[in-house]
């Protein structure tokens, strides 16, 4: 049950990555760093300004989106359409730079933020659940829903999907694919920032947290299918549930082991994931 | 000034020169046909005009405005629509959404729904399939959608790259019939074809061999040419 809640947040962390890949064929290995800045935004709000982190979610989105646009303009713009080794290395470089900057600003210590739900629990049948995690799940699920509405029901979202389908065809019918790409990347990064602030209400942040989040994000995307947003969200939930079951029945230090096994299995036998349709 | 003026166009893919020194003008009205065998450079010319493959040298102008260096979406906004080889409809978008995303340029005062209805009137089949994804349509329907999508921007010049390719003779006939109707509406058409039935529709045209123009002129001159008689009529 709490695996489901944790998984929902993994889901929203991964949805942004999946979106950028679906539209631009870019794997942003610095996605975890965008999450980290979202987490620090929550810390700043809670510890320095005394505002509940959940109230600044739109600002967290903006923080992520702005850093994302900078990333895109400086680095990823040159790699659109090619998830190559060079692109991965550039993204990792990007991640390291963002980590150093965070280290300079915030120091290396782990920090937490408290929302009105932090540290409160409710008992639900046999389950003992954190309120912060329930709220985080609700926000993650509704944000994912909102994003898929945006992509399916608005003219901009349809243009994004057209670019994802066929960039050249999109261009010749008059869609400016560069601005669509920047917008999609900003959305992807903004989602990371928002998810970070939600996460920090129950999970402490350090400048290097991104690299420990990234494996989970990648696994969620692989299980769900890179490029499929709903699938990725479900992939995140699978990760959370499997982690918790392993921790309960086996050993919490080994909770990630079955996930890596699953990752290898998917790569070997079903690289498009449960819901992905595109083979690269 | 010509609707489209192509002057000394050279297109190359790396070391391979696909189009050498091609010049032609298209005036308002009528159907201009670009005829040639596989690999003659027809597609390269269209892709150069629409900005997908910038030419190595030469000029492309529409009504005196230089198009070279423009991005494909800017060429589309200038009123030149490209129906690409292989149709290239958006497979994961519905028929209706394929049309919707092609209306972003807004070259008219019409509403989106009116523009879509125009296309549906031309291709009633698309109206029946409006909720279906582009990728699930038959080849002929995809061709209609690709043409309809190009019509959404109310272009001044409609360029089509082998619209009959991969279609049954009957379907190809239907597509050409529709193109005839579109032409009668006053829209100028640049038609790239291997299929000689294109000549029935055409008013002027040129014949391309190995990236070079071998004949340019009225359609009657093309019909009498060695190339057409030899390639298509077996004479």
What would your notes on this structure say?
The complex is a heterodimer of chains A (280) and B (235). Chain A is an all-alpha fold. Chain A has one domain (2-240). Chain A contains 11 helices and 2 strands, in the order H-H-H-H-E-E-H-H-H-H-H-H-H. Chain A has helices at 2-24, 31-48, 57-74, 85-106, 131-153, 155-165, 167-172, 177-199, 209-224, 229-249, 257-269; strands at residues 121-124, 127-130. A two-stranded antiparallel ribbon of chain A has the order 1-2. In chain A, helix 1 runs antiparallel to helix 10 (229-249), helix 2 crosses helix 8 (177-199) and helix 3 (57-74) crosses helix 8. The mean pLDDT of chain A is 88. Chain B has helices at 42-49, 72-77, 95-101, 112-122, 124-128, 139-151, 169-184, 198-201, 219-223, 226-232; strands at 4-13, 16-26, 31-36, 57-62, 65-66, 80-83, 157-161, 188-193, 204-209, 212-218. Chain B has one domain: Rossmann fold (3-Layer(aba) Sandwich). Chain B has 235 residues and is α/β, with parallel strands linked by helices. The mean pLDDT of chain B is 90. The termini of chain B are far apart. Chain B has a 6-stranded mixed beta sheet, sandwiched between helices. In chain B, strands 2-1-4-5 form a 4-stranded antiparallel beta sheet, with helices on one face. Classes of the chains: A mainly alpha (280), B alpha/beta (235). Chain A binds chain B through residues 155, 158-159, 161-162, 164-166, 168-178, and chain B through 50-52, 71-73, 75-77, 81-82, 84, 88-93, 97-98, 100-102, 104-105, 149-150, 152-153.
């Amino acid at each position: 049950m709490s695996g489901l809640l944790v998984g929902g947040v993994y889901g929203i962390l991964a949805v942004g990555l999946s979106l950028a890949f679906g539209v631009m064929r870019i794997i942003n290995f610095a996605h975890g760093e965008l999450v980290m800045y979202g987490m620090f935004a929550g810390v700043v709000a809670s510890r320095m300004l005394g505002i509940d982190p959940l109230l600044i979610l739109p600002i967290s989105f903006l923080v992520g989106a702005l850093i994302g646009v900078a990333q895109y303009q400086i680095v990823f713009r040159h790699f659109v359409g090619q998830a190559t080794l060079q692109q991965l290395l550039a993204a990792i470089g990007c991640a390291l730079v963002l980590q150093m900057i965070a280290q300079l600003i915030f120091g290396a210590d782990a920090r937490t933020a408290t929302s009105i739900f932090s540290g409160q629990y409710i008992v639900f049948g046999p389950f003992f659940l954190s309120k912060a995690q329930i709220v985080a799940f609700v926000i993650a699920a509704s944000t994912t829903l909102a994003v898929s509405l945006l992509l399916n029901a608005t003219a901009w979202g349809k243009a994004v999907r057209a670019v994802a389908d066929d960039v050249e065809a999109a261009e010749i019918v008059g869609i400016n694919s560069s601005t669509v790409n920047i917008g999609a990347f900003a959305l992807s990064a903004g989602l990371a920032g928002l998810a970070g602030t939600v996460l920090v209400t129950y999970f402490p942040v350090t400048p290097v947290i991104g690299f420990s989040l990234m494996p989970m994000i990648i696994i969620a995307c692989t299980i769900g299918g890179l490029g499929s947003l709903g699938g990725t969200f479900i992939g995140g939930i699978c990760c959370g549930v499997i982690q918790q079951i392993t921790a309960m029945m086996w050993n919490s230090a080994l909770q990630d082991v079955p996930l890596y096994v699953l990752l290898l299995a998917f790569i070997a036998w079903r690289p498009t994931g449960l819901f992905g349709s595109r083979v690269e | 000034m010509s609707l489209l003026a192509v002057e000394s166009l050279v297109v190359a893919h790396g070391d391979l020169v696909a189009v050498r020194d091609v010049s032609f003008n298209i005036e308002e009205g009528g159907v201009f046909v670009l005829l040639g065998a596989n690999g003659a450079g027809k597609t390269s010319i269209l892709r150069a005009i629409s900005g997908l493959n910038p030419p190595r040298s030469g000029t492309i102008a529409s009504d005196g405005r230089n198009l070279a260096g423009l991005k494909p979406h800017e060429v589309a906004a200038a009123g030149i629509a490209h129906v690409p080889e292989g149709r290239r409809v958006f497979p994961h978008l519905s028929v209706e959404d394929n049309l919707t995303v092609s209306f972003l340029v807004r070259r008219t005062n019409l509403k989106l729904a009116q523009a879509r209805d125009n296309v549906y009137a031309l291709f009633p089949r698309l109206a029946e399939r409006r909720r279906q994804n582009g990728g699930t349509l038959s080849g002929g329907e995809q061709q209609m959608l690709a043409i309809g999508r190009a019509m959404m921007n109310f272009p001044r010049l409609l360029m089509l790259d082998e619209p009959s390719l991969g279609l049954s003779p009957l379907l190809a006939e239907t597509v050409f019939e529709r193109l005839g109707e579109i032409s009668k509406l006053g829209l100028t058409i640049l038609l790239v074809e291997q299929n000689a039935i294109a000549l029935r529709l055409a008013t002027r045209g040129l014949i391309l061999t190995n990236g070079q123009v071998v004949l340019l002129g009225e359609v009657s001159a093309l019909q009498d040419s060695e190339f057409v008689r030899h390639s298509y009529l077996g004479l």
